[in-house]
Structure formats: C-alpha cells, structure tokens
Amino acid sequence: MMDISKMRNIGISAHIDSGKTTLTERILYYCDKIHMIHEVKGKDGRGATMDYMELERERGITITSASTNVTWKDHTINIIDTPGHVDFTIEVERSLRVLDGAILVLCSVGGVQSQSITVDRQLRRYNVPFVAFINKLDRTGANPYKVKEQIRDKLGHNAVLVQIPIGLEDKFQGVVDLIQMKALFFEGANGEHVVEREIPVELKAEAEKRREELIDAASLFSDELAEAFLEGAETEAQIYAAIRKGVLTRKLIPVFMGSAYKNKGVQPLLDGVIHYLPNPSEVRNTALDLNDGEKEVELRSDPREPLVALAFKLEEGQYGQLTYIRIYQGMLRKGDELYNPRLRRKFKVGRLIRMHAHEMEDITEAVCGDIVALFGIDCASGDTFCSPGINYSMTSMYIPAPVISLAVFPKDKTSADQMAKALGRFTKEDPTFHTYVDPESNQTIIQGMGELHLDVYIERMKREYRAEVETGMPQVAYRETITQRADFDYTHKKQTGGAGQFGRVAGYMEPCEDKEYEFVNMIKGGVIPNEFIPSCDKGFQAARMKGTLIGFPVVNIRCVINDGSTHPVDSSDIAFQQAAIGAFRQAYEKAKPVILEPIMKVTVEGPSEFQGNIFGSLNQRRGIIVSSTEENNFCRIEAEVPLSEMFGYSTVLRSLTQGKAEFSMEFLKYGRVPNAIGEELKKAYQEKRRKEQK
Amino acid sequence: MVKKELIRRSPLRGLEKSLKQPLQKGEIAVVASPKGIGKTGCLVHIATDSLLQEKQVIHVSFSTRTDHIISWYEDIFKEVARKLSSAMEVHEEIIKHRVIMSFNQEGVKTQQIIRSLTAMIRDGNFKADLIIVDGYNFYLATPEDLRLIKEFAKEMGVTIWFSATVKPENEKIWNRDVPPSLKSFEDLIDVLITLGESEGNILIRLVKDRESYPRKDLSVRLDPKTLMIVEEKK
C-alpha cells in the first residue's frame, strides 16, 4: 500500500504565459513519463502533454485541469494543471480544493502581475501552502531578486531565496543551492543530468549572504536551528525541517528559480516539492454530516475508516465519462459499492484508473490522499462519494453566480441535437456555466462568468460536438431592488362559475441588506390559516423572479405579512399565491424600485506611457478608478467598472496600448444603474414586451 | 445628523479658522513631523473632510500596497461618520471621488508624478480639488521640484497637502520654527504646520501662514488614538 507521507497533491498556479505548461511538461519528462518534449505551440503540431484539448492548443493556453500522476525519488506526485486565465476561475478554485500544496510560477521579467494576485488570493482562500518558482531566467530583463521582493511587497508573503542564479538572461547557466551550498548545472540534451560543482568564486560572497538571510528567516520556525546556527553547526536536515514548518503554515515562501524552457532548475524544484509541501495527512479536511444537521466532522487520513471522496472534475473521454476524484478518507477498491448523498443513490465502482498525462493505467485500489479517476459514473462535479452507512458531504464549494448571458441558436436540426448534448455536458463539468430556455422567447440562453468563458464553450460546441451555432448579443444579468418600505393590502377574488378563489393578504415590503429574499410571517389569530402561509411565500417568490422595471429578479427584499382574510370554501393554495403576487405588484411601484447591474473589479497593467489612455478608456466606461500603482515604468490600475461597459474591452485596450497592456476582471458587487441608463433599459424592455405581445 | 451639519461641526473648521483664509486653489500646505506621530492620519482626515464636501481627492502615496491606504480611509470615515444618518450612501458616494495613486519611491522623478497626475485629471477626467501627497521625500527633492508641483497646482486649480518626515535628531522642530530640511522650500510653502508630542498629547503648531509666521499651538490637536484632528478638550 502506498505510504501517505510519500504522497503529494500539487497544483501549478500561474499567470498566463509565465511558462506554466512548459514547466509542467518538463516535470513530466524528468519524472520519466514521457519521452519527447513538445513546446506549447510546438512546430511538430503536437502540444504539450498536459493541455490536450485542440482549442487550447490553438490559443496556447490551458483551459481544463487534468490530473497527472508522476513519481519522483520514490514519492508519488499528482499534478493538477490549473488554468491560468481569470475567466476560468472556477476551474482553478475547483482544483485548489483538492490540492494540498502548490507551485506559484512567476515570470522573472513580468514578475507579480494582476493575475498572479488573483491566483494568490485563491491560494489564500483555500489556505494552500506553496513554494514559488521564478521562471524564464534566460529572458532579457530577467531579475529574480526583484520578483522575490514583489512577492514580499505586492503579495505580502515572507519570501526567501533558497537559490541564486548563476548568470542571467542569455548567460543563465544554473543555480546555487543555498542549503547544500553547491552550484547546480543541468547537462545532457534535455538537461536531465544534474551536476553538482563548487560555487563559482564570484558568487561565493553573495551566496553566503543569501544563505544567512535564508537561515535567519527559517530560524523563526525552529529553535533548534537557531541555536545550531549561532554555534555555526546547522545541518541541512535542520534547515529543511525549519523551512517546511514555515511553508506548512504559509508563513514562509521558499523561492526557486530557473528556466523550464532551457531545461534548467526543474529537478531542484521537484526536490523542493518533496521537502516542503505537505503530504495529504498534514492537511485538515472536513465534511458535513448530513445525518447530524450538517455538523462539521474532521476527516482522517486513515485507510481503515469509511471512504469519503470528492468528485472534482468530469471529462468526456473517448470511452465515456471520466470522473476525477480525490480520496480524503478510507480506501477504495475496484468493485466497491459507493453512495452519492446528493442523488441518494448507490453505485458500483467498475474501473478504477490512474491518469498519466494522456495514458491511463487500470488499478485495483487507491487510498486516502490519492487522486484517481472512475469510469462511467453518473454524477456532477462537486458531488461527494462515501461508503454506504455514512452520509457525508464535503463542504460546498464557493461558486460565484453567473454575470453574463448569451442566446444561442443552432443552425439546423442536427446542430440542435448536438448542442443539447454539449450543454448537458458543460453544465455538469462546470458549475459556473448555466443554461436554460427562456420561456418567453423560447431561446436557449447560456450564462457564465465572462465573455471569454462563454466564447470557449461556443468554440467547444463547434469543435467537439460539431454543433453549428449562432449567438446573440451578450446580456448582462441585471437585478432589481427596492429602496423604501411600501404597504400592500390585496384581495384576490374570482367567481366565474365552479369553485371560486378568494384570498386577501396585507403587510409590507422593505429593503433587506443582507439577504436576497426574506419572508416574514406576522399573522396573528389565524386570519390566514397556517396551511396557506407557505402559499403566500411561494407567491412572493414567484413575483420577485421578474421585476416590473426590466423583467429581472428582485433582490434584497423582505416581504412581511401581518393581516389578511380567508373564505371557508373559496380559499386555496392557488388563491393565496395569486393574492401574494397581486400584493407584490401593488406595492412594488410604491417601494421606489431601481435597477442594479454587476460591477466588475478590473485590473489593467501596462507600461506607464499608456497610463493616460488606460485612464481614459476606463473613464469612458463609467469606471471608477480606485487606485493606480507605478513602478519601474509599469503601472497597475484598479477600477470598478459596470460589466455592461466591458464588452469588447480587450480589443480596445490592445489598440490603445499597442498590445502592451492586459487586463483581468472578476465580479465585485451589484451597484445601482445611473438614472439615464436605467430609463433606457426600461424603455428597451417595454419595447420588447410590446413586440412580443403583437 | 445630516452631512451639512457634520461638515459644519468638523474640527477641521477650527484649523481653517486659525488660518488667515482657508487654503486656496494652487496653494501648497505641508504637515511636518518625525516618523510615527500621525501625519497620515491627519492628512486622511483632511481628505475625508473634503470628500464629504463633495470635492474630488487624489491621494498620492509611495508605498506599494494601496490596501493599507484604503483601510486608513475606511477607519477614519467610520470615526467621522459615526453620527451620520446615511453613512452607507455617503460612503458609496465619496469612494467615487477618491483615487489613490502610488509610486515606488525609489527613483521616481517629480516630473513623472506630475505626468501621471495630469493623465488622471485630463485623460481620466478626474477633476481633482485636493491632492494629498503623503511621504514625499523632501531630503531628496530640490526646490525646483516643488516649484514644478506648484506650477502644476496653479494650472490645474488644485490645493496640495504634503506630509514631510523630518528626522528629530538633527531638526529642532520643537521651537516652532521651520524644520531645517524644509528651509530651502520655505518660499514655495504657503501653510506649514508641525506635529509634536507633549505629555501624551499631539499638538498641532502653525509655523507659517503665507507671509506671516505665527509659530503658535493651535486650539485643535491630534487624537493620539485615532490620529484624527480634534478640538482641544475644555
């Protein structure tokens, strides 16, 4: 059985273009799993092993996360390749959930950029310990010392060098290991032979100085090391142990460096993964006991305990659906029966698989801590599997609500069928991707986290499913809300032969800051019978799904009922629902409703010379510039901009800055739409309704 | 309390009254003290007061972390708005009127700061009334630098408040005189105040007010806890 202390589940988190895919691919190579190195945009037409989707290959970025198993110095490492683009954050977040540690890759020229900050925030949210790797030391302008300082200043981490470079840019040759105090060179056709030599004379003093800094920082985590260091008798083992302690608590970040592309510095990084990143038993994981009011229970990395596993990734492979799972507790054998609490269904484990880049290996068992895949299981990503007899669910993952939607129209019948298939698949794979059919227009609507997010799925529909689709204009997910309290007193009465309908509800609606919707029952003396109270709630909920301003859901509203009347014969569930809907409409106008729009937090980075252009472009988009930071002729601007103004911004930004600036954005909050724009939206909505009624 | 009342009762009116006239567009004011006395708090309070009056403020800083500055504003706003009835809405409103621009201190030239500020005001269409420059290094700057800034202030019609850190060991700022490190800038500075600790209080001293040198302790002081300007306790 696998020794859990020799297991690592790591992710490689990075800014786009910092060379993550190349690094991942080199790691696989050195771990002896693949025998040829392909570049991301390889000339031989084959992309790197990890990002195998055709589309990704074309764009040179990695979109899906695939888990790959490698072996390094008798340790098992599962590598989750995480996407770099911020529009796919949910994929990153989902991977982070199952990781125990990470490598944060930074470019030695670009340093800490806006997306690095986003990625760092994600690591923080899931409390993932990590080491840093400064890549591309062979590039012009490479400066690992500066990048290390940026990790300290911009990310606020206690970063310390464990290596220093031997030469930089086109003279980059290798690294000095500050713990072993050895110069490391990478020889052989693909840098596969790590050769230790004496530290070059001219680097001796620098190495001594940096080693001292490193040990000073590490000593804070080990008195033993601190004492030994005073006596000049510190051992390598003491230093490794002290750094490890710092890393596990995220209070120390060891910084590695190299150039994956030039095959330099990758093997010492792998050693670092083993030295410093936690094994699965060192990470605290919890689940919710559904039989005990969702009480939090701690999971134990013990193969003898009942099984608890999380399905974190679904993939449609050539041979059917592949479900990637992370086992948190217990042991899984081929043929075992498992339970899915969400579906309340048991299922049998047919094939159990370990994934190596693009080949799979059939295995018979896996233990807690491991990441494996199952074949042909019906489930959604985010589902928990457990041994029959327990009813646990892993904590629900943080899933942001979609902010943008798009109508899709299939070109013909075949495309329509294929599109339906594709959409079914995507919604299972990606919880931030939603789809529904608009009952009024009968159009299929897809929703997601940004323009690029939806673009990728449209592309996938075309390529993987051969579904020819056209798309409408992107639509922003507006909301409506009320700004003041308003009373209602509404009687629903209908007597047109047969059984009549009667219900009267009275009360008020008011703004409610912290909840999307709240229903409060203050009925006394049974003027509305208890059985019809839920009907009122239902009615309000139905009414709030479509505000009367522009037909979007009404949020931050509290509906309170305090009076009403009933009829012994004519009152019914339906009658009270209708009464509540009427009451809602009656009060809504009086409650001064307003329109809300999603506001994005936008970060733009580029050379300072384009600062004016960037300021101008944000200002034109109703953006509020929150801050601007300038450093070495590079500026980073943070702004809050309505999503509706951000369509096509990447093109605009590119042309304004000769392609030298980039931006990232994420959902921040809902904000009130200015009156003039609100009026336009209302007019457009009324226009649309008029047309539909004709 | 409504906003108007809050502005009227602000201790900053006390500071204004001590001057011959409130600061005008194109004028430069400096608050000087040794490190850690409360210059930033004092300036953020001044900025917040302007924001409440619906003026637009650019806050220039030389630290790479803008979130620290934002939390300064959050804290001081919370204090100021404690008695305000519509604090939430006012907060929303004032955020729109504030921009933080930060520069890496090392090697940033005054011309570059002016260029960026101009870009913000012109291209960013941000009509600033007040610019706070926190932590400007007067030891490295030359009078020519400050002259350029003053020209810029006049051209754009903004008031600029600087903070200047002075080294206590070689500067006798306690005698209510212009600190030696600011001597060469004296003519360009319209209003100069210094902060000094005395028996657990932080006193505010008006050293220079345009042509005159009052060299007196003001009736307002800095609260040692919140580092905000308060009226002297009677």
Structure, briefly:
The complex is a heterodimer of chains A (694) and B (234). Chain A has 694 residues and is of the alpha+beta class.
Globally, the shape of chain B reads globular
Query: What is the averaged pLDDT score of chain A?
Result: 84
- The chain-level structural class of chain B is alpha/beta
**Unreliable residue runs of chain B:** none
CATH architecture of chain B: 3-Layer(aba) Sandwich
Integer-rounded radius of gyration of chain B: 17 Å
The main pleated sheet of chain B reads as: 9 strands, mixed
* Number of E-state strands of chain A: 38
Number of strands of chain B: 9
What does this structure look like?
The complex is a heterodimer of chains A (about 700) and B (about 230). Chain A has 16 helices and 38 strands. Chain A folds into 5 domains: about 5-280, 3-Layer(aba) Sandwich (Rossmann fold), CATH 3.40.50.300; about 285-395, Translation factors (Elongation Factor Tu (Ef-tu), domain 3, Beta Barrel); about 405-475, Alpha-Beta Plaits; about 480-590, 2-Layer Sandwich (Ribosomal Protein S5, domain 2), CATH 3.30.230.10; about 595-675, 2-Layer Sandwich (Alpha-Beta Plaits), CATH 3.30.70. Chain A is α+β, with helices and mostly antiparallel strands and about 700 residues long. In chain B, a hairpin with a 2-residue loop joins strand 6 (about 190-200) and strand 7 (about 200-210). Chain B has a single domain (about 5-10, about 25-170, about 190-215), classed as P-loop containing nucleotide triphosphate hydrolases (Rossmann fold). With about 230 residues, chain B is of the alpha/beta class. At the A-B interface, helix 14 and strand 36 of A face helix 4, strand 3 and helix 6 of B. Strand 36 of chain A pairs parallel with strand 3 (about 100-105) of chain B, so a sheet runs across the interface.
